[in-house]
Amino acid sequence: MSSGKRVLLIVGGGIAAYKALELVRLLRKRGISVRAVLTKAGEEFVTPLSLSALTEDKVYTDLFSLTDEAEMGHIQLSRSADLIVVAPATADLLAKMRAGLAGDLASTLLLATDTPVLAAPAMNVRMWTHAATQENVKVLAERGISFIGPDEGDMACGEFGPGRMAEPTAIAEAVAAQLDPAAKPLAGKRAVVTSGPTYEPIDPVRYIANRSSGKQGHAIAAALAAAGAEVTLVTGPTREPDPAGVTVRHIETARQMLAGVEAALPADIAIFAAAVADWRVAEEAPQKLKKNGSREIPALSMTENPDILKTVSGLDGKRPALVIGFAAETENVIPHATEKRARKGCDWIMANDVSPATGTFGGDANTIHLITGDGAEDWPTLTKKEVAVKLAARITEHFTA
Ligand SMILES: Cc1cc2nc3c(=O)[nH]c(=O)nc-3n(C[C@H](O)[C@H](O)[C@H](O)COP(=O)(O)O)c2cc1C
User: What global pTM score does this model have?
Assistant: First the structure.
């Protein structure tokens, strides 16, 4: 139970700071007490008075405030909580955390603590996708900092993309999960997930690919990591940012994807959400194919790619306990997926209708039929993130049953 626990909330200087007020309300509703620290820039967006009124506590803003030090030293402040939550976590705060800077109260607290930290990044899409921020997040995740979000969507700056702070309800949920160890039900489990399309080269500049966005596979990797699993994501080229707290291997071809999966074994769970090309060009041209004025159109001779799902399902010794494949079908979804489960030798198939009318490929929603040894479960239409969370819960159920 998270009730009775204490959170130190660090509010950075971003537009999303206003959402921190709602977060305080939601945490307190769960019986979690909140003490707030506001950065100098944060004070430009929300007032200490609002935070103080909602936390019913003093709000800390200044490292060199004598009264703060007399009442509660900054070291003590960072240790007085069960969890430190940084929301919004600005690009600046993430960079300071990574570098170990301690030039103000917020960064000093973050450096002076061994209390677990959950960060909710919020920033402009270009700030978030910048190599510096991505590297900072990767390093911080490796050091054990947990992340929630950011979400993708319209941003206050008028742009669209990943960078929007996770909604306060989702952050409150993640805080409660972090404060309650039973909420990490997949802790100790290893998982490998594939995502995105594969690119199969024709010549050095051309390739055969498909329209997979990677949204579903990436969401699954993130949901398993949030449930406590140690996750490796092997992904083809996508526009999705690397999920925080996940080891990500970027590959292009089906053969590289298989090698990436094999390198991630042994694992307890394998989920193959990638849209792997069934065939590749038999012989990749070493140089760019030219027209050369000839009217003859070159014929592409194809050969079969390795079948990753079947290969891993059939492994001796190293076969993960639970192997899950996806079936992207455009007709007779359940019969085709049931037949695929038997043919591949996997445990479950997540069957989805990807006919163009459904908008599943590249879209945000998915209607899943889960095919197991017991038959088909029809899931309602959910967002891909919701599908991922439901799948993580279903996997937990499987391992605890
Ligand atoms: C209007 C405005 C909005 C801003 N929004 C963000 C934001 O959403 N995320 C971010 O990382 N920085 C944002 N910044 C920049 C930060 O406020 C700036 O980097 C500041 O130094 C962060 O300080 P802090 O990390 O100590 O809170 C914004 C700046 C302005 C003027």
Answer: 0.62
